[in-house]
Write the structure tokens for this entry.
Amino acid sequence: MSKPAFEPGTPYDYPLIIKKLLATPLLYVPDQQIVYRDRHTYTYRDLGRRVGQLANMLASLGIGQGDTVAVLDYDSHRYLECFFGIPMMGAVLQTVNWRLSAEQILYTLNHAGAKLIMTNADFLPILENLAGKLETDPKIVVMTDNDREPSTTLEAEGLYDRLLEKAPEDYDFPDLDENTKATTFYTTGTTGLPKGVYFSHRQLVLHTLSVAVALGSYETLGRFRSDDVYMPLTPMFHVHAWGIPYVASLLGVKQVYPGKYEPEMLLKLILSHKVTFSHCVPTILQMLVTSPAVKKFDLSAWKVVIGGSRLPKGLARAARDLGITVFTGYGMSETCPVISLAHPMGKLAGSDPETTLDIVTKTGLPVPLVEVEVVDGDDRPLPHDGRTAGEVVFRAPWLTAGYYKDPERSRELWTGGYLHSGDVGHIDENGYLQITDRIKDVIKSGGEWISSLDLENILSQHEAVQESAAIGIADPKWGERPMMLVVLKPDHQGRVQAADLEAYMQAAAEKGLLPRYGVPEKYVFVDELPKTSVGKLDKKEMRRRFR
């Protein structure tokens, strides 16, 4: 361990840096297990050793403080090592979304200035197509599960595990300035080039501590504590897998990394390792709860945070009926990401099942150290009455300072001392936030705003509907009218017509669940809904196809 320079008799200026997070599990639970698929199991002690070897290996390849190391991999123990080893040595971890187009991946690698790329062998064809276009001429290290040299036209430095084995275990990790840049990645917006966001050691540590408190310290459903078994179902390239691997490591829980997402493997790992805590987008949960095999197993110990898109009440009910505890988490790439969690708190704790279902499908309460407001067009705060909607804005000590090398859009992101989300929502008298739409997705009809998320949430509760999406389509009289794109459950296909769904929505309007002018008249049945690279509904693509 490096010895910080300070004057005798002066206190140690304790930096909030990532290496401090890893120190706790190495002391508390060095023999706790970390599992990769059905292939590999090791301990936190092994993790600490390999983190040191990783830093020495990177240093031998010319990586130093401030250099960017890009990673393309599935969710794995190797990725977890990179979460720690790369920023702990003072380099910058770039988590690369391998689901982007080749041109977008090229842009992100060049824009971030990646000096070295560590890639799963499956993604070598992507990099082969980029040969000669990478401006920094990065070195390449290959990750494999079988310890065999893959066939490639690229010149690689070697296999990740072999290089680690040759490297010394001891690395003198420095006491960095806590404001040192630790990670960067690129948003998956549907317009323009990807935008780079970045986070410091201090921001990641504070986010970890706050989320650990929010998930584990309050007497409520879905708690995440040291006796849980954790498996992410959100790609580790996506906002640090929502930052939960850092929380899991701090707590010293048993961790299970599934690698490539395959339904049978996911279910096998959940059952064989008795996984109790995960997080995912609604699409993954939908895939699991609609699998006939799931009904054969007891999932009553499984707690799942749902984010990325709104958790439809129909999906939440289907999960609850299988014994799964689900609740919403909310955030953005720009927010590191967790901003709120939908726990029943205070007087709402212990609510009846239907009320609880309403609460867990809200956007949620801000986690500790987060301030949330909804504001009008002049950035004036709006009342917390559960009705008055405006743009959602945040303050927290871990929000990105801006977009990398993009001062203009950074200024647009931060106005009035708040980070502007681009989401529309309202806050109720109990402090619960509810996102009602993205500003760009809200349907503007006859001067009124119709929430696409509300329409989707209501229709999700129809017994025949598996998934739905609402978009605005041009209308000569009203400007826009809502259209519903619907995926029916297999056993209802051909038995349900558009008129049946319209009648269902009309009935919801009569109950006051949505305004009468918000009832869609057009329903289009599709086999699947377009999704973004991180599993969110791709409204831009839907509008392109159907407008």
Summary: Residues 425 and 436 are 5 Å apart (CA to CA).
